[in-house]
Amino acid sequence: MYHQRDLLKRLIDNYNLLFSMDNDLLKTTVVTYIGPVEKMLKFYAITEVCTVVFWVSTSLVTVFQKEEFVHEDYALPISFSEEPISRNVYIVNVVVEIFGSGYLIFKKVSADIYTLHLILLLTSQYKYMKMKFGMIFRRKDNSLKSRYQSDRVIEKELDSLFRHHSVVVGSTIMLKEILSFNVCVVHLDSVFRFCFLSFMLAMNMTVNIEGCILISYTVAAILQLYMICFYVQELFEMGSILADDAFHEEWYSCELLVRKNFRIMIHANKLKCQLAPCQSVDLSLPSFMQIINQAYSACLLFLKMK
């Protein structure tokens, strides 16, 4: 994202333009859609950071068990000094590990939440336009006296919505360019992460503190990956059903110009909001199961090699 910071600034400017409108329906749609997700993101962030910090802190338990320490006593692979390590040096090293691991996992969690937030804001725009299209044609008056005036109002509202749609499509293209490489990295990283988490759980079958920490971290990691896959899938689907609500209304009774504009919007539904450059490393609900299966297969391979 930092490498694409200029494009990211342009995307944020587009978001600011979309949300600067004094539109109660848009505000209600965004708040209703993103509100419930914030609770899951808070759970993910707190669980991930706390479990990693607590897991690294378990190295301090050995302080009360012996006087000299080796590199294997650390929870993370680290080497500050030669063996044997004195107690004071060991405590300082563990404290450095705690702050370092906490800082790194907090950066990762922040990047995940920020990425998901960009996706949610864009999906809420598609949800708003889907409802708005249906509402425009639902208000049509078919009486002969006001049909002309009704078509003028519909045409005006459609023009405004088309301009809104063009900004949203431009934002989608920017978001794809920003996240295309990140999506590939998250896909591959998730395969290795769940593979090694499964391996660690298989090697630690006893009920102890380390096992509970691994299970908590794994649950939060699965939740994080599922949320990204689910909302990327929803973004993909919302881009293809944009005119579904309006299609079942009486758009066919409008003037020719209105019908032509509406058909243009129907063809625009064929634009796919796919963020990944290829489907093999995409993030979607089918990709979620693919990642879990690949991680499980790799874990079985490591267990057989052990």
Automatic annotation (TrEMBL):
Keywords: Cell membrane, Membrane, Olfaction, Receptor, Sensory transduction, Transducer, Transmembrane, Transmembrane helix. One of its GO terms (molecular function) is olfactory receptor activity. One of its GO terms (cellular component) is plasma membrane. One of its GO terms (biological process) is signal transduction. InterPro entries: 7tm6_olfct_rcpt. Its main location: membrane. The chain crosses the membrane at residues 43-64, 85-105, 214-232. It is a multi-pass membrane protein. It is found in: Cell membrane. It comes from the Eukaryota. PANTHER family: ODORANT RECEPTOR (PTHR21137), ODORANT RECEPTOR 19A-RELATED (PTHR21137:SF35). This is Odorant receptor. It comes from Vespula germanica.
